[in-house]
């Protein structure tokens, strides 16, 4: 790749940062929302989503945003994390703890190339939890990847906006680098995956493979399987077609 081509490639990687959404779940302190907006803007991230914030809009958010008030003005407020993630192709949960039946957590620098490659064409979400409690298991269940920041285990607590800053920095550092990003096929949106999981559960109940009274860990295990591979639209259409046929109750009648 000659210098002109590399410059164009780098510009495309930097533009991909604008398709990385920062999602704050149940933030308690409006000042952290403002500081998050500032951290995002310094690294070229633009899309902020808030899930059930305790106080927003708020003067403290405006004050801590400094010159990033435009990000606060565009910020979207959602009632649930599922709603906030609906249009994204991947959600990445920032957490210090491992979750059973989840993908092994990666460090931020390891995860950045895949996230940036996918963000070339589709929105990707970075999901952060409440300042005190972090992400709940229910919120983490909506994330296809887990990322951890390599803090000192003797004191791993990191301010919310600082965690956003570190992750945004790693993404920008990757965008500015010369290394080729991994090839990443287009994935279906998380809204489409949520619909698929509902249909899958309904079908498994209908064919008596899943007992709703004693579900055990079947659906979480199946979610982990599909989260690991990442479905393309044609693959999702095939699977939905199979479910439709499997859900047939009698000849000529399909749910």
From TrEMBL:
Q: Write out the annotated subcellular location.
A: Cytoplasm
- Which branch of life, at top level? Bacteria
Keywords of the record: Cytoplasm, Methyltransferase, S-adenosyl-L-methionine, Transferase, tRNA processing
Q: Which Gene3D superfamilies match?
A: 1.10.8.590, 3.40.1280.10
Gene Ontology MF terms in the entry:
methyltransferase activity
InterPro entries reported for this sequence: Alpha/beta_knot_MTases (IPR029028), RNA_MeTrfase_TrmJ/LasT (IPR004384), SpoU_MeTrfase (IPR001537), tRNA_m1G_MTases_N (IPR029026)
- Any keyword Ubl conjugation? no
Q: Into which EC class is this enzyme placed? A: transferase
Pfam families with a match to the protein in the record: SpoU_methylase (PF00588)
Q: E.C. number, please?
A: 2.1.1.200
Query: A single GO BP annotation from the record?
Result: methylation
**Where is each tRNA/rRNA methyltransferase SpoU type domain found?**
20-169
Family per UniProt? Answer: Belongs to the class IV-like SAM-binding methyltransferase superfamily. RNA methyltransferase TrmH family.
This chain's function reads:
Catalyzes the formation of 2'O-methylated cytidine (Cm32) or 2'O-methylated uridine (Um32) at position 32 in tRNA.
- Subunit comment for this entry? Homodimer.
Record-linked PANTHER family: TRNA (CYTIDINE_URIDINE-2'-O-)-METHYLTRANSFERASE TRMJ, TRNA/RRNA METHYLTRANSFERASE
Q: What is this protein called?
A: tRNA (cytidine/uridine-2'-O-)-methyltransferase TrmJ
| Source taxonomy | Bacteria, Pseudomonadati, Pseudomonadota, Betaproteobacteria, Burkholderiales
This chain is encoded by the gene named trmJ
């Amino acid at each position: 790749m000659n210098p002109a081509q590399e410059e164009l490639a780098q510009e495309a990687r930097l533009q991909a940062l604008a398709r990385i959404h920062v999602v704050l779940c149940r933030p308690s302190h409006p000042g952290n929302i403002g500081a998050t907006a500032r951290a995002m803007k310094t690294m070229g991230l633009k899309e902020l989503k808030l899930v059930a914030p305790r106080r927003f809009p708020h003067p403290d958010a405006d004050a801590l945003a400094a010159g990033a008030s435009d990000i606060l003005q565009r910020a979207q407020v959602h009632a649930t994390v599922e709603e906030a993630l609906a249009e994204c192709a991947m959600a990445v949960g920032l957490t210090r703890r491992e979750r059973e039946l989840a993908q092994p957590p990666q460090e931020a620098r390891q995860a950045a190339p895949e996230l940036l490659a996918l963000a070339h064409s589709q929105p990707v979400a970075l999901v952060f939890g409440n300042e005190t409690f972090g992400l709940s298991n229910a919120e983490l269940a909506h994330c296809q990847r887990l990322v951890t920041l390599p803090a000192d285990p003797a004191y791993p607590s990191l301010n919310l906006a600082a965690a956003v800053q570190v992750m945004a920095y790693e993404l920008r550092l990757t965008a500015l680098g010369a290394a080729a990003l991994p090839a990443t096929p287009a994935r279906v949106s998380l809204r489409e995956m949520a619909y698929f999981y509902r249909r899958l559960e309904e079908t498994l109940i209908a064919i008596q493979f899943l007992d709703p009274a004693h579900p055990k860990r079947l659906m979480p295990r199946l979610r982990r399987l599909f989260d690991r591979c990442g479905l393309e639209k044609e693959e999702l259409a095939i699977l939905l077609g199979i479910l439709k046929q499997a859900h047939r109750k009698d000849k000529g009648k399909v749910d």
